[in-house]
Amino acid sequence: MNIIHDPNEPVFEGRVKRHHGSDSRVFLGVLFVAIGALLILENLDLLSYDLSHILISWPMLLIVIGIFNLNRKAGSAGFILIGIGTFFLLPRIFDVPDHFFRNFWPAILVVIGIIFILQWKRKPGLAPFSSTTDNRDILDETAIFGGRNMSLVSEQFKGGKITSIFGGSKINLLYCKPVDGCVIDVATIFGGTKIIVPENWNVKTEVVSIFGGFEDKRGNSVISRVDQSKVVVIKGVAIFGGGEITSMP
């Protein structure tokens, strides 16, 4: 039997590539079913208080959101959310000393540090890289207790990483042309990032904000000028910080 693929459907290694949107909907469907089932069990008094105190709580919600982000390939945001949720869930499971919560910020620093170490050897972005990739096509900016303004010029911009901790950066990408699969991974913690892009870029923001925010300030006027061949995904996490996307230098 011959299998005919839709010519408009992207194919990867001989298989039809799955869309993350479908995977996310399945995950959300399972999540809603699980939450609904737990609430029904609690209303019927079939769930013990100790168990409901753990499963139906805001720390568990953070863990679930973190798992959801891992499912969307947003590793940094996922691990940080899971770490925060687990920290505040432990006192609901075990007897901990009174000074336990003093370790919150040290624990967050450890989690962030581990994430950065694990990402050190990872190539930035999701576009295909090779040993011949020009470093001018990759963004790798880190601002800690400071910041700087920089401009990148690239005809084959492949994405990259922006890290801002107690600092910030202003990144000018007006002179870049993104390739397929261009992804910018953002990690903003007590800092800020401003990314300047052309008005015709189709920017998809998938940044998880915790006491922060990340906003596309180009406005609705750019929708009619968006070039669907220039897709850039910005993902990551903003904790007590934020960022913005604009077309104004």
Features:
249 residues; alpha/beta; 2 domains; eight-stranded parallel β-sheet; two-stranded antiparallel ribbon; 10 strands; 32% helix; 33% strand; disordered N terminus
Strands, count: 10
Strand content: 25-35%
Low-confidence stretches: 1-19, 123-133
Q: Helix-strand pattern, N to C?
A: EEHHHHHEEEEEEEE
Structural class category: alpha/beta
Number of helical stretches of at least 4 residues: 5
Overall 3D shape: globular
Rg, rounded, reads 21 Å
Largest sheet: 8 strands, parallel
The tally of structural domains comes to 2
End-to-end gap: 56 Å
Assembly of the depicted chains: single chain
* Overall pLDDT metric: 77
The percent range for helix content is: 25-40%
Short description:
This protein has 249 residues and is an alpha/beta fold. Helices cover 32% and strands 33% of the residues. The chain has five helices and ten strands, in the order E-E-H-H-H-H-H-E-E-E-E-E-E-E-E.
Report on the structure:
- By secondary structure, the chain is of the alpha/beta class.
- It folds into two domains: 11-119, no CATH class; 135-246, no CATH class.
- It is built from five helices and ten strands, in the order E-E-H-H-H-H-H-E-E-E-E-E-E-E-E.
- The chain has helices at residues 20-43, 49-55, 58-71, 75-93, 104-119; strands at 11-12, 15-16, 139-144, 147-165, 168-189, 192-196, 202-210, 213-216, 231-239, 242-246.
- The strands form two sheets. Strands 3, 4, 5, 6, 7, 8, 9 and 10 form an eight-stranded parallel β-sheet that branches.
- Helix 3 (58-71) packs antiparallel against helix 4 (75-93) and helix 4 packs antiparallel against helix 5.
- The longest helix has 24 residues, at 20-43.
- The radius of gyration is 21 Å and the shape is globular.
- Mean pLDDT is 77; it is low at 1-19 and 123-133.
